[in-house]
Known about the structure:
By secondary structure, the protein is mainly α. 53% of the residues lie in helices and 4% in strands. The strands form seven sheets. A three-stranded antiparallel sheet has the order 8-10-9, with no helix packed on it. A two-stranded antiparallel sheet has the order 1-2. A hairpin with a 7-residue loop joins strand 3 (29-31) and strand 4 (39-41). Helix 11 crosses helix 16. It is extended.
Amino acid sequence: MESVDGNGTTDVVHPEVRAHINSLVSALGGFSADDDGRYVLGDSALEVLRDIKKWIRFYDEKTNRMDVARCLAEAKIIEGDLLHILATWPEAATDKKFRSRAALACFEIMVPLTWPLERDLEQMTVNHHRHLPVLQLAQVGYKRAIINFDAAQILHTAVRVALPSMALSRSDRSSRDDGIIKLVLLFLRNVAMISPPPGVQYDGDESQISRSALIDAYAYQDILLTILTIASNMGEDFNQEALIVMEIIFHLVKRVDVSKLFMDDKQLSKAKSNELTTMMNKEAAMHRPYNRKAPSRHNRWGTMIWVDRGDGKVSTVTGQDALLDSATRQHKMDNSKVYRPPRRPRKDDMEPKDLGPPVSLNPRARQQLKSFVEEFLDSGFNPLFQHVRKKLDEQKDYVFDHHSRQFFYLVSWFLEAERMRKKAAKDRKSTSADDFGSFSLVAGVLNQQMFITLNRAIGDSLEGKRWQELCAAMRCFTQILLTVQEMSESKNEDDEEIAENILSRIFYEEETHDRIANIARDYKDQGFDYLDASTELTHTYLRVLEAYSKQNVDMQVRSRRRVRKKKKAAKANEEDEQNPVEEEDDSDNDQASAERTSRERKFDFTRFANRFTPQGVVDTFVKFTKYYHDLNDAQLKRAHRYFYRIAFKQNMSVMLYRIDIIQLFYSMIKGQEPLDKSSTMCKEWEELVKQILKKCIRKIEERPQLVIEMLFSKINATAHYLEFGYEKQTLSTSQSKPAAELEFRHIVEREQQIAIAIGVLLDKNLADHINWVKSQLSAAESERRAWEAVEKAMPSVEGGENQGEEQNAENPPKESPSISLQPDNDARRIAMFKNSHLRLLMKLVGFERLLPTADETPESGWIIPSHLTGDQIQDSLDLIKKAEFSPPTFEDGKLAEDQLRRKAAPRKKAVFDDDDDGIVDDDGDEILFPAGGPTARKVADEFLDKPKKTRRRRRRSSNVEEPSEEQLEEKARARKEREKAKARRFKSDLFVHASDDESDEDDGGRWAEFFANEEKIRQRQNAAARGAAAVTTSAVPNPAEKRKAEAVLSDDSDNDDDLVLPHASDDDDDDDDSSRPKKSQGDDGSDVSGTDDTPPSSNPRAGSASSHKRRRVSKEPTAPKETTSVDVEMGDADDDEDIPASKPAPRARARARAGFIVDSSDEE
């Protein structure tokens, strides 16, 4: 609200607010003439201070206005009242609580008044625009008054206010103690942060508010010691204060040149003189081209000339300098052209916006800051930055975006300071190698957690386009690489081993390589600071990685795994339910994919360096080189090394053959404003440009089309062709496969199958394929009928009719020769290999491959086999013509293609080189043979032969407990064991025969003793069986038991577990027969249980151990009165012991195997 006072001036603050504030300031106190001009507090000064704090809190902050702060600034409350109130608290008066409370109340007012002011254009109101310029200059006055106050040490007094709270242990502090400590640290942060606003001329002495004055005040009033104490005890005695301490340090050291900080006076003076010489040389170089063509007092007359441009066109150029040479005339003509570029936001200056200009320190401040940095590196670096990193990872409410930016900047700054300190110590050679050889003082930012935080920050800032934070993270990454490289080059074995581990962790992730390449390629207009940081990171990363890859030839990187993608058909839900589409099976390529992945895991530096050759990366370094007048030698060397790598190491100098790049190189050496000849990099740049231009001229003579390409940027394919003269050859790693085999969804007649195939080809406008098949069939039909006529007429020519019949009876007719198919063009040949529908039609009409067992290629031959007669060929031809005339139609508007589906390919197990850590599970119990041999399976219409299985869903409200993982694994293991047992049984029954155990007659009775022993055992078993039969036949079976036995024998279940009878132990053979289950008998009273002495493998020497094995009992459905077949399962050969059978059978009988009746070997 504006008001007009009596003088006619406009007041931007409400008069009542100003009146209240002025009354409070006047009641605070004043200077007394009675006390020699000392400041005297008012009667209620403490209450007044609290009222002022409430006005600031509830008026300015709540209403987002700055009226109270403006009134307090105009009333000069800090310079005129608060600083004098703090001076009334003497150093020795520690027991005066009133003075301490008054001092605390003063700081509670000074903190919001010195709080940094931000210009947020989206949230700024009219009041902000009115008050911000005034308050910014007022804050500069506050800073000057605080650090230069002579009556008392204001900064030291602030520490005295917080000292009682700091003295308490962390567990004993109250929330008020934590608030006091935080308040004092924020006051110190605000004082360090205040700086003159950009673009505003400060009226006072800038030396009183400079960085040197600030560092001197902090050192003189023991603030630096306080910061060191808090930083070294971070995590133990202090927790949330880490971010504030980091901000204070940031505003103390930002933009300070680290290389000059650790120089002695002699080196510093030499460096300053060199800087002065360089600046003077640059100024002279700027004036030199102007002085060469500057006008003199004799040619100050105006000049206008016409320049003939050819084709009868002329241009007017003014000025006498146009008479000097043609280059000047062309330059004046170019400058006279009117170009109105589109309006864009104004680019940032070369200096970073949040850091300010470079800082120059006086010798005293430089020495004080140097001592502080050395002590901080020795004691506080690791505790502080480890704690700050944890806070950044936790993302607390008090963590802001600028905190991460300051964190990465400080880490990079102190890492560079540590390297400079070690370098200075080595140059002086005043300390032992152990003092500057260990890097343990900065180990807190060289661990894996730091790398994770750094990579996440780079990725997030790159994705969110927060360029300042990304710039700070890139500089941090660069300094980490340089520090680790120095560690690897040190003489300390521990440091070398740690550096090796750090580099292996950094370079192991391929994602890091990708991110560095993307940063260098995607530069657009983020400012010079970002450009400098990105080029420095690229240069350092390539250099360190190249050295590391040379030392570690078998370097491995972890790349993203390639997952096999299955093609899915996009069809309606109804079609998916009725006609499920078979997924493509890429299991045949599993081994090739695994090999390709393993090759990519091995790092190739040449291949990685090629990622920095695209035009985007070249343009980034070209934009950086355009600032060659403002670049130092290190930056010029960085650009020089990149262009040298591109032109001569990567052999991609074509990427530099562009008009603007060639013009830039020429201007740096021979232009009007060339490089300074005194620069150490001038000679190297001159030689590089000379060699590049030589190669360019030779390349133009070799390939004149390069002249046109110099106008444009180049993609990799164009650059490769211009460089080597041929296009880049790409070799396919996968062998070309024929088209997938198709099958019919339903079983239809051959006529309908051909009609469907013809319909698909017609729907796809491939009638030319049908015509080709018809032409091949017509030619083959004519040839086959001619051959048949010749064969039929041959007997009548050679002899009579009866003689011919006799010859036909003795000699069968000859097979007709096969007819080869000839594709009429290359497109047809490829279609025969790649078109699934054409191949289906060819197979339906009887075409076959010439070599079915060989791998098919596009050059594989096809034939019409000899077994096709002329009538069969003619029948196929008629069916094709009929289908062409009347294509098939289907219900619901479906197409002929919907009647086909891809035939499932046999799945092969993938063997990856990196599965299970290279451990191969060589299980000897795996199934080696198919159970029961190959079985023909009908694919089409298989789902029609058996009802669909309905899946029962478990209700969520069911009380049935879900099986645990251990139970599921146990069930899977048991099922696998049952399958293995079945496979062994089938394998033994199918592949073991009676002839396998035939003894060799040449052994000379090697088995005689064994056979004699077996014969004795057999006789004892027969005698025991006859005695048992006599007892059994005398007993009449119970009808109930007989029905029960018949029910058991008639069970046809496929579950083996339901058909297993209990085992008989060795002791049970000597027990009473009543303990055994009764056996059913045949009509002659013979035992029909599974105790036959002949095993199922027809081996006469197998013994009788099979009576202890599991039995599969089945009943003959057609002969209930006949003997019941029993399937006796054989065990291993080791189980054949000399154990007498429980009940031997007196005679041989038919045996059953898997439902088939086989003859016993005893009948032979």
